[in-house]
Amino acid sequence: MIELLQKHASALPGIWAMDTARYLLAAGLVALLLRVLAPTVLKHRKIQTRDASAADVRREILSSLRSALIFSLLGFVLYIAAREGWVTIYTGFAEAGPVYLVLSLALMFVAHDAYFYWTHRLMHHRRLFGLFHRWHHLSRTPTVWTAYSFSVPEAIVQGAFVALFVAMVPMHALALFIFVAVQVVRNVMGHAGYELHPAAFTPGRWLGWNNTTTAHDLHHELGRYNYGFYFRWWDKLMGTEHPGYPAKFEAIVAGKVAAEARP
Ligand SMILES: [Zn+2]
Ligand SMILES: [Zn+2]
Questions:
Q1: Distance, CA of 150 to CA of 66 (rounded, Å)
Q2: What's the 202 CA to ligand 1 centre distance in angstroms?
Q3: Model pTM greater than 0.90?
């Protein structure tokens, strides 16, 4: 065990830097976008009337950096498992072609959505909430920096998915890269505080099966409903979607009414 850790230790700083950089980059870019567009294009797209405080943002950034460190330790375990041949992370297309890459990536998103929904609902159980999930809900008005704002136990639950999935499904390194990139961008968008999705994401329209910023924002504001990550499927199936969500999303993307004046 100690020998294995020593043998691969040189990879750890790089893995940590990647996990930390992807959070800072995704959150930083969306924060910049909001700063530029909030007074004009996104003027009526602020979801809550309330503003997060500077102390909220400080807590979110510090705990997100802690989560990135935990993710990198879990990533390090996955790296060792791959290098030792216990799990398969491959490069090139000799054994499996691009079709497999696309299908395995799609399966990974569907599986992650289910994993997130059910672990999230479990963490809302009154016996588990305090230890696992209360920290994330300190952010009643989410910001782009809320994305990885987890307690240590929740960060372990959230970070374990990739290793658990790769233990079962061989993955191309490029597919894993795309997965973590999309995951962090969707996560940051879900907490942005401004609705960033176009009207095509309205429930019933062609992209309406996807979640939006408004959907997850409602989860933070109310502390219940809308437990899903990428898709609305599980919330619809289990009857946990906020009944007022479609109308609220529609009103926000119509873009004519500021948060203060909305019913
Ligand atoms: Zn929650
Ligand atoms: Zn959240």
A1: 8
A2: 22
A3: yes
Judged by its nearest atom, the ligand closest to the C-alpha of residue 224 is: 1
Counting ligands in written order, the one closest to the CA of 122 is 1
Between the CA of 58 and the centroid of ligand 2 the distance, in Å, is 16
Rounded to the nearest 10°, the torsion over CA 49, 236, 145, 248 is -20
So where are the chain's domains? 2-261
Tens of pLDDT, residues 142-174: 999 999 999 999 999 999 999 999 999 999 999
User: How many whole angstroms from 218 Cα to the centroid of ligand 2?
Assistant: 10
State the Cα–Cα distance between residues 86 and 89, nearest whole angstrom.
Answer: 10
Tell me the three-class secondary structure of 141-198, residue by residue: CCCHHHCCCCCHHHHHHHHHHHHHHHHHCCEEHHHHHHHHHHHHHHHHHHCCCECCCC
Separation of 224 CA from ligand 1 center, angstroms? Answer: 7
